[in-house]
């Protein structure tokens, strides 16, 4: 829909992060040893698997079909503009040849670093590249056992913690983050995950900024990659010293755009295709086409980004269900991406069952279910110059907003209402 109304607002100061709200849609990738278990990336925690018993996944890690060019092509075709891959998840396994641990891909049967090929492949497809780096580490010998550790119920947990010093672990993180932010070119996003300072369990405290030494860590990140966007799970104080770079609501689309101390904040919703983040073979909760598209529209309509996750299989491929979901996005974005890239919330109120996104004086009405013939939009009467469908640019008529109530045919317009006339049949388009 084309609206004559002009939206005022700042043009946006040219900064190294301006790409983010333009791009709107990214791919999250959770890949690690848990792909072999294929029953959730928290499997080691959920099933309280000891390090010895979890080792079989390390010894069998061999994603022989790993081809990040294929991942990148599928991401680009889905309309995604950036990517965030788990360089290390909570299990502590590292996808690159870190000097600071033996628990890494190069020491598995696969025998190679995965990150170099990853950054090259996604950049070649024009996507910006990011890393997820877990603050939690269930493998590091200096990481004190706590309530979310696989050994939390071990009878000697408190005794074992006497030989663990989280300060050594904080230094390990700085070393690894230095590797990640110096060895792979420009990194656009780093996602730290996550803090739980108030979660005490059996006398073992949770962890937060004092454990991670978050202020020092973020200082290092900013020094190494001045333009990087840093996720907000470091438990940093939200006062003036640490302006929040990125709020990260998870598996949840907020009702209103998040704010910090009353101020708007850059934000990104992350969601899964299937429920778990790591590859889960037997999960029955894959989202359907309509849900996939609605999540994206709902997010952009509120001014946020969507990071949609894929969990590759242990052979290093996206499985058929993931590819189908990505193709759904691709088909939709092929014709509708104009309503997503660089678009954001509208000052107009969308009728029930619809969402608005807006870019400049173009207003995009997303009909999330198909109404019978008429959509009434308050506040838009006499403000619209032209209306069309986005998928085929076919004209949409509206009723005269100045018409009086016509009791013969029951059409009541006026009061500044714009009433669109839709075809009875929904055009054959995705979602
Ligand atoms: C975290 C990870 O634990 C999860 O595996 C995935 O990587 C996701 C993107 O981020 O999810 C969380 C974060 C916080 C809590 C639970 C799951 N929490 O506070 O309980």
Automatic annotation (TrEMBL):
Broad EC category: hydrolase
EC code: 3.2.1.51
UniProt entry tagged with the keyword Phosphoprotein: no
InterPro entries associated with the record: FUC_metazoa-typ, GH, Glyco_hydro_29, Glyco_hydro_29_N
GO cellular component, as recorded: lysosome
Segments forming domain Glycoside hydrolase family 29 N-terminal: 17-337
Tagged with keyword Transport: no
Keywords: Glycosidase, Hydrolase, Signal
GO terms, biological process: fucose metabolic process; glycoside catabolic process
Site positions for May be important for catalysis: 270
GO molecular function, one term: alpha-L-fucosidase activity
Function per UniProt: Alpha-L-fucosidase is responsible for hydrolyzing the alpha-1,6-linked fucose joined to the reducing-end N-acetylglucosamine of the carbohydrate moieties of glycoproteins.
Family: Belongs to the glycosyl hydrolase 29 family.
Protein name as annotated: alpha-L-fucosidase
